[in-house]
Design goal:
CATH architecture of the domain at 4-78 and 137-222: 3-Layer(aba) Sandwich
Mean pLDDT: 89
Strand content: 25-35%
CATH class of the domain at 4-78 and 137-222: Alpha Beta
Largest sheet: 6 strands, mixed
Shape: globular
Structural class: alpha/beta
Length: 231
């Protein structure tokens, strides 16, 4: 099994330190925190997408080469993630055989390749984005609140799909979300982040059933519908 040990990740602006964390990623891991807690910055740091105005110090160990080809990313809003004027077929960068293979993994037929994004449902678009991520030989999949923009039915279908990928593919998952039900259904490990610092981490079942920090209790008890608890 692949694993990542983030021994040090420090992100600074000119004025202050924004993030100072360390944690390990194994199996499926959730990263949870309020707006401004540092989740987004952590994701951008792992993807090497931090703006030049921020300084990043990182010491990350993994048992695989952590580079563009080994990382897949599922952004928060599927509706703005594809070119609206380009057929799905042209939004993949792999062979036709690979397209067929990854579409099968996400339960889509090849007819979607000849469609424009506007001709697909939200759930189908999210599956296409996941298929594009899987078209590389990835070992690490970052999911940025992948169910936020979906209705309940499509949300449940995407959760089922992610669980299937975890079961059938040897990949790591880092799941950033405000949706506690998704965490319960998918993630074995949980990381709670507040003001750029990890305040609690461990097995998801243990933390969700017996949180130690008041901040964690507030997050769990919240309906997560208040925008203050979103990313």
């Amino acid at each position: 099994m692949f694993n990542i040990d983030i021994q040090k990740l420090i992100i600074k602006s000119q004025e202050k330190e924004l993030v100072n964390i360390s944690f390990k990623i194994s199996n499926a891991t959730a990263l949870i925190g309020q707006s401004g807690s540092g989740k987004s910055l952590t994701l951008k740091a792992l993807l090497n997408l931090l703006p030049n105005s921020l300084h990043c110090e990182r010491d990350i160990k993994s048992n695989f080469i952590l580079d563009f080809n080994s990382i897949g990313f599922i952004p928060q809003n599927p509706f703005t993630s594809l070119s609206p004027m380009t057929k799905i077929n042209k939004q993949f960068f792999c062979s036709n055989e690979k397209k067929k293979e990854v579409l099968k993994l996400v339960d889509l037929n090849t007819w979607v390749l000849e469609k424009y994004p506007s001709q697909l449902s939200g759930g189908q678009i999210q599956r296409v984005i996941i298929a594009i991520a899987l078209s590389k030989e990835i070992k690490f999949l970052l999911l940025d609140e992948p169910t936020t923009a979906l209705d309940i039915e499509n949300r449940d279908n995407i959760i089922e799909l992610i669980n299937s990928l975890i079961e059938n593919l040897n990949i790591l998952i880092l799941f950033v979300t405000h949706d506690i039900d998704s965490v319960k259904d998918i993630c074995k490990n949980i990381i709670i982040i507040k003001d750029g610092v990890v305040i609690e981490k461990g097995y998801a079942n243990d933390i969700l059933s017996n949180p130690k920090q008041e901040y964690t209790k507030t997050l769990i008890n919240s309906t997560f519908k208040n925008k203050d608890f979103r990313k």
